[in-house]
Amino acid sequence: MSLVSLNEGEKVYIIHGVEENFRCDGRSRQDYRPLELEMDIVSNANGSARLRLANSDILVCVKVEIDTPLPETPNDGKIEYFVDCSANATPTFEGRGGEQLAAELSRFLSLAHCPVFNLSKLCIVSGQSCWKLFVDVLILECGGNLFDAVSLAAKAALCNTSLPNIVGTYEDGKNIDLQISDDPFDTKPLDARDLPVLVSLCKIGNNYVADPTIEEEICGAGCIVISVTPKGKVSAVLKKGAGSFMPDTLNEIIMSGSQIGVLLNKALEETITKDMSSNVCKQRFGFLK
Amino acid sequence: MPTNLYRFQGPEGTIPYQHYLIDKNNTKLTKIATALMKNERCDGRDISAHRNLCIKTGIVTQAKGSAYVEKGHTKLLCSVFDPKEVPNKVEYAKTGELQCEFKFATFSCRQRRNYTRDSEERQLCNEFRRAIEPAVCRGEFANFEIQVNVLVLENDGSVLSTAITAAGLALMDGCIPMYDMIVASSLGIFKNTILVDPTYDEETLCLSWTEDEENRGTVMLAYMVSLEQITEFSQNGSMDINMFPEYVQLLIDQNCKINKLVQSAAITDVIGHFESQTTD
Amino acid sequence: MDLLSRQGLRTDGRRSDELRRISCKMGVFNQPDGSAYLEQGNTKVLAAVYGPHEIRVNRSKAPNDCAVINCQYSMATFSRSERKRRPRDNKSAELTVHLKQAMTTAIKTDLYPKSQIDIFVEVLQSDGGNYSVCVNAATLALIDAGIAMEEFVISCTSSLANGEVPLVDISHLEETLGGPSITVAILPISGKIAMLETSQRMHINHVEPVLTEAMRGCRYIYDTLNKTIKKHYEEIGGALNWGTEEYNI
Amino acid sequence: MNSIKLNIQETYIKEYLALQKRSDGRGLTGFRDASLNINSIHTADGSSVIKIGNTAVVCGIKAELGIPKAESPDVGYLLVNVELPSLCYKKIRPGIPCDEAMETTSFLNEVCNNCKILDLQQLCICVDKLVWILSCDIYCLNYDGSVLDACFVALLSALQTVKLPEVKYDKETDEINVIEDYKFLKLNCLPVASTFGVFNDKYILADPTEEEEQLCISKFSVVTDGNLLFSLHKPGGNYIKDNQIQNCVKYAKIRAKTVHELIKSVQ
Amino acid sequence: MNISISLASKKTRHGILKPTSNPPVIFTPGEKIRDEAGFMRGHGTYVSAGSLKATVAGVEQNINRLVTVSPLRCRYNGEIGDVVIGRITELVHKRWKVDLNARLDAVLLLTSIQLPGGELRRRGMEDEQSMRNYLSEGDLISAEVHSIFADGSLSLHMRSLKYGKLGQGVLIKVQSSLIKRSKNHFHNLTVGISIILGNNGYIWIEPTSNDNKDLVGLEDEFEQVVDIGDRQTISRVRNVILALSYYKMLIYDTSIQFALEESKKYTVSDLLTAEACYDIANLTRHRLQIMDE
Fold first, then answer.
1. pLDDT tens string C216-242
2. Which residues of chain E lie closer than 8 angstroms to A267, CB-CB?
3. At residue E49, does pLDDT exceed 80?
4. Could you identify which of A77, B12, C74, D126 might form a hypothetical disulfide with A130, taking C-beta atoms 3.0 to 4.6 angstroms apart as the criterion?
5. Cβ of A288 and C37 within 8 Å?
6. Do E91 and B92 touch (CB under 8 A)?
């Protein structure tokens, strides 16, 4: 991503544009670029989704495994986030180049989900066995605003996830053996509709914009990422970039971020419902379209 | 557990014995929780009171600048080194860089930590760097980097905010040009009750999952008092949006209080410098 | 478990000399200079090519008269049914080297002095023959990037069932259960072999039939991909005036 | 630039040494004052902080339960690690441990094993099943020479503060029960290290500071508990004479006694 | 707040425009084009066993007896006299390195720019030391290809009033093969917007300046705020060009003009949607075809 640089003229042009509430691509400050979602595209996963936000392309897969719960939380399952920045997205990600960004993304995603996600839903036998969810995010192309795109894709993939049904357990002394249904359709969906999405607001000049492009991210003095649940609660806030904020600006940004977040959640919700309802003869396109 | 060729490693899969005392720990947490419902804290503080702050600057004589800060049981050390050229770098940079390291000592937390950096340390390191970056006059040392290191000796809550405060002092002690002093403080929110400067147990309580809709979580804010600028803000938990202005205001007030302490420590530090110079 | 039923059908219903369904698309992404997506059965691979561009790392060590080819083979953590812990491990480092060797034979590196060509492949779903599909996808991406090549590089993996019948384009199940397998990458028109590897000990008498089958598979894949490329170019070329200034229909 | 600075420092120190004095006022064989503080870290099962002159070192011990080695099923683990984090000294880069840290670590472990500081049998809970693992991590906070000396004091005083609860292990059900009846560890001996620097063949400096260490052509350490000599450690460098060593051992023994008193005084 | 998430499966498949009726023969790498006898090997071909073969996928082109195959998409291959837009990446002794999306970074010598003081000014040490004041890393310039070095890298010059450092505006990047070579690459679109179509695929859109450009074109002017009307048109032009580029259509003054006219029914931000892009590209092509006939 460091491949993009801007000269002063371009920066001034962007900053003035934001002031006039008319950005380079014609959006107003709070508009998102068109998003495109496709669910259930990886056949060997328990849930998956691919999201395109302009040029940002994110593929998220959820896999489940049986694990033993931690001794301090015997009734809770586990969830692990892993982000990989594919070198396909930009050559700077080659080798370990994308690791720092990936670590930041996965850490913040787990921070944002953690206070909202009820892990006891993943419990099978208290203290003995639980589900462990692996949420694997693959970044295939970067067109700015990765935090929002990754969170939307991750939520969609989790909504798409279903857990296999346990058909029987039998105890053998202390150990409990679990029998998982062989039928791939004998599953129960995971309820993930309450999960938050992330909204990045980039401060440019004295204003802030939603869904920043790469150019705007470079131009901006700093960025606030807010994790918003469908009910408008805030579950995590993060600051990116080297800038600093006035207290009033910060409050204002968080306020409008939560409003955007509610709408974003609603839009995602509607799309997911639409996708679920058209379940019959659904065709997977993936990357062929 | 990643294998490590550089250190003596014990066997894999060790368990802290405290795991078998979980009930005790849980009752302790419940006790704290019930006390908090009555607006009382286990260490006898008022819910809006800070723990005592103990500041010592210049204790790492080998570093350019350093500060040791103790806040309750939270203890940490921060040191700053001379600006030096960035190794293996060809491009020209107009602003200097801050290289930060944020490390927990292995014995600093309830559970023993690993030697290698984990994701929490990385994240704290990122937040730490972002918090102090705006305060340093980075234009003064173009193409150079400054190394800022933090070692947490004991973690009893509000580590990041303490570290940021310590870093501000260490940078000052190291005579690195800064726009303003930087201080930070944190809040815990438990069932709508606001706790200033939460301890480790209180933080755990604030972040544990509950069914209800009440506000909970932690908030941290780093602030430059005389410039009135927020340099870092992070929050975790589940909170109502309308509460944010209140939290932010409260944190700013707290920071102003801490700033007074920090400033007096800074003045003592500077006087100390002069005295040592005159005795030389 | 029998890899070949009495009727001569494989576990996924194919005949022994039948390849899996191939679908592909060129130009999936905007940012790379060339990109391609290739599915062979359930093995799905994305390839991206950046360059030729200025050499970024180790500029002083690079040769002056030809291009540096830089590859990375990576496997998504979710690509197999068992979750992988890391996308890049020792195995993928080895495949990276193989991929680089195979692609270098075909790229006309002497045309691009002092430059670097990056080829990145990402296995999204793996069901056998990962390396082969990656080579094929990389070829497509290179063509999409307009990089001069002597020929296509096409790869195919085949193995032996019941110690006698060669199986072409094997799936993951056949890879794990079956006998020794041969992976070969060839330049299909001239028939030159760019890379050849056997998975394990193999009887000398078996090499010939398995290799022939793999090469036949390569030629089939070449035909399919070649057709797709032509179709893709016919579709997009018109508006572009076929990339020429003067061409008139 | 650096060489010039070193040169100036060398002349400066030489002038002092000619007067049988050192730049901080000590005599040639004088040790710096030490101060010790124990149990200051509450998250550790045992801890101590030692300052010798400006050199500061903290040691924290965490006790965990684990499975013993198959070849020695009845002993626990005592793992000693020395960390020289980048914050203590400007010449250390962050990342993997530096050579000096690794060297100090292996020397400490060697001495611990050789002189049996601790009967490792007392760390055994159930043979072949469960033992204590004591991870002793020593962090240097300020690197001002003779870090090894400080590490020894820190380790010993921290070990003395460790209290382990009683653990009941049921062989049948693998069940573990922790009873809060804490007991101290029994230490066999208290080895104390004293580092000496050899300056210019002629002078032997006890307990050199960082500045002096830079200029010394070689360095060696004597480990003793006042009566017995546990180890003499001289990692290369220039040769030293036999009688010089004899003298140093003498000083080291006296030093060991004072350190023992210091450790006793804080308990 | 405009947020729309569409489903990929609901999208009708219009990744491409309808292909033309009778496409020419397309050669792919390794395929034989013709026997070598009597022909000369050009770009995109090689000789093997007495026949000419293609190295890239494309259409055969004959200029007299020279046979070339040009790929539909590749990095920019410069030709002398091309107008290019580039970004300064590095300052090295007496020269700037310029990124042109070509195989190698181009070079702009200190002697190839006009400094204040005119043609006859001597370039001394002072100029060398203050190079960063004229052009620094990240700056955008428009220039002309002056010569081609043996290794294929380009040398640029800015010794004309029309070239110089670019100020406020928008840069978009498209494939270099989409830019149609023509006599003029500087266009003042009727709507008060100037556009420079760099042969290397970089396109610069800026408001037409009324006052004469100062002689050197190395000064910055950031005080002036581009007015909202111009801004809207610039964004519209930007989105329209991106739509054309998505559908691999040649970009030149006429195609942009047509596309702009067709885009009138959409608001600027609507032009970001796939449907609008398709519609505009399709209509534009239709009009171009009619014009050709």
1. 999 999 999 999 999 888 887 776 666
2. 3-5
3. yes
4. A77
5. yes
6. yes
Residues ≥6 apart with Cβ < 8 Å to B156: B72, B73, B74, B199, B200, D42, D43
Q: How many Å apart are CA A130 and CA A121, to the nearest integer?
A: 9
DSSP code string of E49-118: TTEEEESSSEEEEEETTEEEEEESS-SB---TT-EEEEEEEEEETTEEEEE-SBSS-EEEEGGGSPPTT-
Instruction: Report which of residues E127 and D56 the model is more confident about.
Output: D56
pLDDT in tens, B62-91: 999 999 999 999 999 999 998 888 776 666
Q: Does a structural domain hold residue B139? A: yes
Cα dihedral sign for C188, C189, C193, C198? positive
Write out pLDDT tens, residues B127-174.
999 999 999 998 888 888 899 999 999 999 899 999 999 999 999 999
Residue pair E163/E196 in contact (Cβ under 8 Å)? The answer is no
Dihedral sign, CA of A133, A139, A143, A145?
positive
Q: C121-149 burial string, b = 16+ CB within 10 Å, else e?
A: bbbbbbbbbbbbbbbbbbbbbbbbbbbbb
Report the residue from E61, E72, E250 with minimal CB separation from C233.
Answer: E72
B125 Cβ under 8 Å from any chain A Cβ: no
Low-confidence ranges of chain A (pLDDT < 50): 1-2
pLDDT, tens digit, 9 for 90 and up, residues C62-120 = 788 889 999 999 999 999 988 988 888 889 999 999 999 999 999 999 999 889 999 99
B192 touches chain A (CB under 8 A): no
**Alpha carbon separation from D81 to D97, D154, D155 (Å, rounded):** 11, 12, 10
A98: amino acid identity, one letter: G
Asked if E1 reaches chain A (Cβ–Cβ under 8 Å), the answer is yes
One-character DSSP codes across D204-231: EEES--HHHHHH-SEEEEEEE-SSSEEE
Grade residue E11 by pLDDT with cuts at 50, 70 and 90. low
Distance between CA A151 and CA A264 in Å, rounded? 11
* Integer CA distances (angstroms), B118 to A73, B124, D134, in order: 21, 10, 22
Write the CATH number for B246: 3.30.230.70
The mean per-residue pLDDT over the stretch D155-159 comes to 93
Question: For an interface test with D, which of B5, B7, B111 has the most D Cβ atoms less than 10 Å from its Cβ?
Answer: B7
Q: What is the pLDDT of residue A75?
A: 87
B26 domain residue, yes or no: no
Complex ipTM, two decimals? 0.89
Structure tokens at C154: 């096409």
Q: How confident is the model at residue B3, as a pLDDT?
A: 47
Domain membership of residue B166 as a residue range: 42-86+94-279
Of E54, E55, E57, E60, nearest in space to E71 by CA: E57
Question: What tokens does C80 get?
Answer: 């197999």
Look up residue B196 and give its two tokens. 């200033």
In this complex, whether D and B touch, counting 3 or more CB pairs under 8 angstroms, is: yes
- Tell me if B119 is assigned to some domain: yes
Handedness of CA E259, E260, E262, E265 (dihedral sign): positive
B63 touches chain D (CB under 8 A): yes
Q: B208 in a domain, yes or no?
A: yes
Number of structural domains found in chain B: 1
- How far does Cα B238 stand from its chain's mean position? 22
What average pLDDT does this structure show over C116-125?
Answer: 94
Average pLDDT over all residues of chain E: 84
> Which tokens hold the place of D191?
């080895």
Neighbouring C-beta atoms of residue E112, cutoff 10 Å: 19
Instruction: Report the SS3 class of residue C6.
Output: coil
pTM reported for the whole predicted model: 0.91
The answer to whether C231 and C188 have CB atoms below 8 angstroms apart is no
Which residues in chain E are contacts of A12 at CB distance < 8 A?
168, 222
Give partners of A (≥3 CB pairs < 8 A). B, C, E
Q: Which residues touch B164 (CB under 8 Å, ≥6 apart)?
A: B128, B131, B132, B182, B183, B184, B222, B232
